[in-house]
């Protein structure tokens, strides 16, 4: 066991290069701007921010799917840039918002779940299937689904398949990008509670990316608030919700409350005029 953070980002930036379209080259886009954070044992780190704030770009950098244009990513104290995709995948798994599009519709659930083991060349086919059966049981899916196809399942069941597939290789950290936002409200809590139970069983850490402040409050131990590619506030979940310090965090919480009071789905879209005013405010973005 090591006491180094499982994941550490130091001053990480990512700029999408301008794309060439029919109207010429578009301007480069700084989607992530000097982000530093660490994920340590026991953490469930929430990342919140409105659409376009850079959350998914940050997740892709953590998963090694994008190379940062600046800064350093360390996994277990080693530069992620010197690791293979496979070495990264051994440490970090992920689940995305829409379980349907992330599951191969032509493969049975058993094959989908066992596939990461096949890619790693682990065990015989029979051993891989046995592990897939076990993990499906752990995520609460009856064995009859082993031979089923994704289109024969509900959204919540498909997300359980995605979770099983992510966990079969036993990563330490799971990145969950809006894991329940495509699900019916009635099954959202079941999936979130399953993730919390699995945390105990697998000794897992999570990064939970969500627009839904209810999800963030229910799930996380710490929260990073992103705005225009930067982390403007990071604190324990309790402090973020009880004493938000940054004006943008306060704005997010207020706008969430307003929507929630109207019984709608909490959403982080904030008022554009207020946003522009805050962008002008010189002290708005913490350096
Ligand atoms: N491939 C790309 N090329 C150019 N710009 C991109 C690309 N992908 C994302 N962007 C831009 O980078 C910024 C950050 O996008 P990103 O998807 O990381 O935000 P997000 O916070 O995850 O948003 P959402 O919650 O809507 O998924 C946005 O302005 C987006 O338009």
UniProtKB/TrEMBL annotation:
Keywords: ATP-binding, Nucleotide-binding, Transport
Tree of life domain: Bacteria
Chain ranges of the ABC transporter domain: 7-253
Keyword Nucleus attached: no
UniProt keyword Cytoplasm present: no
Membrane topology (UniProt): Peripheral membrane protein
Family matches, as Gene3D superfamilies: P-loop containing nucleotide triphosphate hydrolases
GO cellular component: plasma membrane
Subcellular location: Cell inner membrane
InterPro entries listed in its UniProt record: AAA+_ATPase, ABC_transp_ATP-bind, ABC_transporter-like_ATP-bd, ABC_transporter-like_CS, Oligopep_ABC_C, P-loop_NTPase
GO MF term list: ATP binding; ATP hydrolysis activity
CDD domains with a match to the protein in the record: ABC_NikE_OppD_transporters
SUPFAM superfamilies: P-loop containing nucleoside triphosphate hydrolases
GO BP, sorted A to Z: peptide transport; transmembrane transport
Family in the record: Belongs to the ABC transporter superfamily.
Protein name, per record: Peptide/nickel transport system ATP-binding protein
Organism field: Mesorhizobium tianshanense
């Amino acid at each position: 066991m090591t006491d180094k953070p499982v994941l550490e980002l130091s001053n990480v930036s990512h700029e999408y290069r301008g794309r060439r379209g029919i109207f010429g080259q578009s301007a480069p886009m700084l989607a992530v701007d000097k982000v530093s954070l660490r994920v340590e044992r026991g953490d469930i780190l929430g990342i919140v921010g409105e659409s376009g704030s850079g959350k998914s770009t940050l997740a892709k950098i953590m998963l090694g799917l994008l190379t940062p244009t600046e800064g350093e990513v360390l996994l277990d104290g080693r530069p992620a840039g010197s690791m293979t995709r496979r070495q990264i995948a051994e440490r970090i798994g992920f689940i995305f918002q829409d379980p349907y599009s992330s599951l191969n519709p032509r493969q049975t659930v058993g094959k989908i779940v066992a596939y990461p083991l096949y890619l790693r060349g682990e065990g015989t086919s029979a051993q891989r299937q046995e592990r897939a059966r076990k993990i499906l049981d752990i995520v609460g899916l009856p064995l009859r689904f082993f031979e089923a196809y994704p289109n024969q399942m509900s959204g919540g069941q498909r997300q359980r398949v995605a979770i099983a597939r992510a966990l079969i290789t036993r990563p330490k950290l799971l990145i969950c990008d809006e894991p329940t936002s495509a699900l019916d409200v009635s099954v959202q809590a079941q999936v979130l509670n399953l993730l919390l139970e699995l945390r105990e069983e697998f000794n897992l850490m999570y990064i939970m990316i969500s627009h839904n402040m209810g999800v963030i409050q229910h799930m996380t131990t710490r929260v990073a608030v992103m705005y225009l590619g930067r982390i403007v506030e990071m604190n324990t979940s309790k402090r973020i919700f009880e004493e938000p310090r940054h004006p943008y965090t306060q704005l997010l919480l207020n706008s969430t409350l307003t929507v929630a009071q109207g019984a709608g789905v909490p959403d982080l879209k904030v008022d554009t005029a207020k946003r522009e005013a805050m962008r002008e405010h010189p002290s708005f973005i913490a350096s």
